[in-house]
Amino acid sequence: GKAVYINQIRNNNQVHLWAMDRWAVDEDRDGAFLVLPLKTTDSDKVVGVVGVDTLLSASPTQFLPHEITFIQNTVKSLSNGFSFIDARHKFQRTLISLLEVIPRKESGVRVVSCYVVEPVPHVPSGPKNPDEPDEHVLRCMLALNPKTGEVEVQTGAARAVICRKDSAFRYSEQESPEHANMDGKRDYLFTCMEKNEDQQVRALGTDHLAMCILGPNEKPYLVLDLDTGKDKADILKPPQIKSIRILYSKLMVVFKQLLEEVDSNDKKCINEGEERLPDDLKFALRFEKMILDDLRKRMSNMDVGALSEIKSYNEPPPIIATVIQVTMLILDVCQEEELHEWTKIKGYLNSELLKKLGAFNPLSKDTKIDIHKINDRLKGLTSTDVKKGGSMPTFLLYQWIIDVISIIRVGNTEHS
User: Fold this and answer.
1) Exposure winner among 88, 121, 178, 270, fewest CB in 10 A?
2) Between vectors from CA 354 to CA 353 and to CA 357, what angle results, nearest 5°?
3) pTM surpassing 0.85?
4) CA 109: distance to chain centroid?
5) How far is the C-alpha of 203 from the C-alpha of 182, rounded, in Å?
């Protein structure tokens, strides 16, 4: 991790040049060689080296002090650039978790798109009016594919720049109400960005909620566009918007931790399992873990009486049965053959089960869960279905299952 300076390469047996044409034609000519490490800001980890030599220089071969200083400053700037890209990559991976969590918590959300706010460079045809507001464009960065349920990083044409004047985000007064903005405003993404306020509108036949994510300077950094589809019954209500806002606040906590690690050399591991993960997944794991911990606090109010309604069924509805079976499977409470025997399962709905729920650690090395088997059992089941067809304890258990699966998926992705 330290710089190395060699003032005479030709007579140094520790230096080997693979490209022999790098040697000067004149055998009497020598050269100097300076090697500097490229380090990340957050962990002081060496991610590369920069080597500069004077072999092909016709001038004196030694580096002058001011030349060494210039090269050192250049490499330091390059290292800072690497650190910025690294931090952005970590934040993007955490942002992917947010986009995955939103429809998991609010199944009415069909599509989630994330736009990064980029300033428009001022092309001087004269001095800029100081009272003139800065122009911005939006570039699609991430989008949740409703068919696969996976978040896709947008590249190529899909990452095209969106300007305020683009017709895709403007609506004339002559358009039918079905294709007009619900509140009569135009350009809801830009309105959200400029006012830093949520914008709930109807555009192109579907309902949208636009939300801002602020950067460290408290200015809009990203704009989220949540599409709830054509059915007006799925429009997000204030409690649901508040729930999404809580997710956003947790993202900002992780974002702050990320920035603190970038600004210092202190690399922390807050949760078990972080040490074996790549840095980008470490922050995504923290975000997912915060969501699970928040749910645990809500579930801590549950007692045996809360399970009495479930136990009262002689034969539970399919939704409740599925949720309870999967819970038993994750906690390894009973054998898989017993999952279809309701009389036996009811015997496990007790205070001991609640203790196991509170103590369960999805990142423990002893935790062995077949996610594919669980997903097969939950196939087609959404949080809306559980909320409508089950009790509140059942709904909380379903949320717990989904959060546990997500943490295990992130924790097991060691080489992503």
Assistant:
1) 121
2) 90
3) no
4) 18
5) 8
